[in-house]
Write a structure and sequence with these properties.
Number of strands: 13
CATH architecture: 3-Layer(bba) Sandwich
Helix content: 25-40%
Bound molecules: flavin-adenine dinucleotide
Shape: globular
Distance between the termini: 35 Å
Order of helices and strands: EHEEHEEHEEEEEEHHEEHHHH
CATH superfamily: FAD/NAD(P)-binding domain
Mean pLDDT: 89
Low-confidence stretches: none
CATH topology: FAD/NAD(P)-binding domain
Structural class: alpha/beta
Oligomer: single chain
Radius of gyration: 20 Å
Number of helices: 9
Strand content: 15-25%
Length: about 350
């Protein structure tokens, strides 16, 4: 590895760790700086759709994901009533972030990578060989994400997606016979803490029978987490730094697939970074090549998600969406392709 330049990655989430793993597998030394530690719970729906073979192969993810649950059917609910069953063209992968992030961290270290946990990098400037995979961009936003895991909660299908008043909630089976409950809500003035907050949001957004089902289940209090300041992007950020995953563009949850995008952005950055590390391109060329590759990969997906998002949140548009889907006027195939 001595003849190659090392790569420094700020942020040890999905984009940062998978990039580090991909680089190490190609003989390039990588260091990941992570503000937190592993394992840790994250606000996330915890199902991955549209993760392609090439990305898994190039980043070395296949073994890590080989035992994930395979979700084939989604039950959509509107006003607490089941509205439609959707067959996924390709199974979604169900695995908690608690397990996934820790597995990635272990694989990265196992491949010889250097992982510095509990290390928040405050230096934000561009440097040759430095990649930012720091997750969502902070800013004022009306959205709040909440999640916890449950036991003894039976589902209608592998995945349930519930549309409510300026809110949507996903229930996904994960490992250990557990179900991940995760929702995106427009913020309300509720001064409650812990798992009760998610239950209160379910009631406020009109998910009464869903709330009752969840209250009757066994909630894992330790897994509760919340995230605010969620800003969604219409396009890949064009900038003077290399940014991957949510740091490059954050797609609204359940319209697209932020986890697959995090991995795919790492995969797209891999070849330009290998060329840089091997002295075959300058840092400016590398940065430009990565930005062009990310624009080409995600432009259509971000635009499609931006158009679809209001239909998931606003009651009138939700009804239109449901009515169209009942009479089969929604082209699910092309829509799925545009979003993945
Ligand atoms: C409510 C909600 C539900 C979602 N559901 C799904 C879903 O079901 N399926 C799906 O595919 N996607 C989903 N997503 C999106 C998905 O969670 C993200 O797209 C994905 O986590 C992005 O990965 P990432 O590596 O870019 O960022 P992250 O996973 O957020 O990782 C960024 C890492 O960088 C670290 N970091 C940040 N700043 C610094 C710093 N200065 N120094 C050091 N470390 C730093 C953080 O601690 C963090 O570990 C959801 C998102 C939300 C909000």
């Amino acid at each position: 590895m001595s003849t190659t330049s090392p790569i420094e990655i700020v942020g040890g989430g999905l984009a940062g760790l998978s990039l580090g793993l991909g680089l190490q597998r190609q003989g390039v030394a990588a260091t990941v700086f992570e503000a937190g530690d592993y394992p840790r719970h994250r606000v996330c729906g915890e199902f991955i759709t549209g993760l392609d073979e090439r990305t898994m192969e190039r980043l070395g993810l296949r073994d890590l994901l080989s035992d994930t649950l395979r979700h084939r059917e989604v039950a959509w609910f509107l006003d607490d009533q089941r509205a439609r069953i959707q067959q996924l063209p390709v199974p979604a992968l169900g695995l908690s972030r608690h397990v996934l992030d820790a597995r990635l961290a272990r694989a990265f270290v196992g491949a010889g990578g250097t992982l510095r946990v509990g290390t928040r990098v405050t230096e934000r400037t561009d440097q040759p060989g430095r990649v930012f995979a720091t997750g969502r961009k902070l800013g004022r936003s009306p959205w709040l994400g909440l999640k916890f895991h449950c036991r003894r909660l039976s589902l209608d299908r592998d995945l349930e997606l519930h549309l409510g008043d300026h809110a949507y909630v996903g229930l996904s089976r994960i490992e250990g016979d557990r179900v991940n409950v995760c929702g995106l809500f427009r913020r309300r003035p509720l001064s409650i803490r812990g798992p009760q907050l998610l239950l209160a949001y379910l009631t406020a957004a009109g998910f009464r029978s869903l709330g009752q089902r969840i209250e009757a289940a066994e909630i894992d209090r330790e897994s509760f987490c919340a995230v605010a300041a969620l800003n969604f992007d219409r396009r890949v950020e064009s900038g003077r730094r290399v940014q991957l995953g949510d740091a490059c563009a954050m797609i609204p949850p359940f319209t697209g697939n932020g986890m697959a995008m995090a991995f795919q952005s790492a995969e797209r950055a891999l070849d330009p970074l290998l060329a840089f590390a091997r002295g075959k391109s300058s840092w400016t060329e590398t940065r430009q090549a990565i930005e062009a590759a990310l624009q080409a990969r995600f432009r259509v997906r971000l635009a499609a998600a931006d158009a679809l998002h209001p239909f998931l949140l606003r009651p009138r548009r939700q009804r239109l969406l449901t009515a169209l889907s009942r009479v089969r006027l929604i082209p699910f195939g092309p829509l799925y392709s545009a979003l993945h």
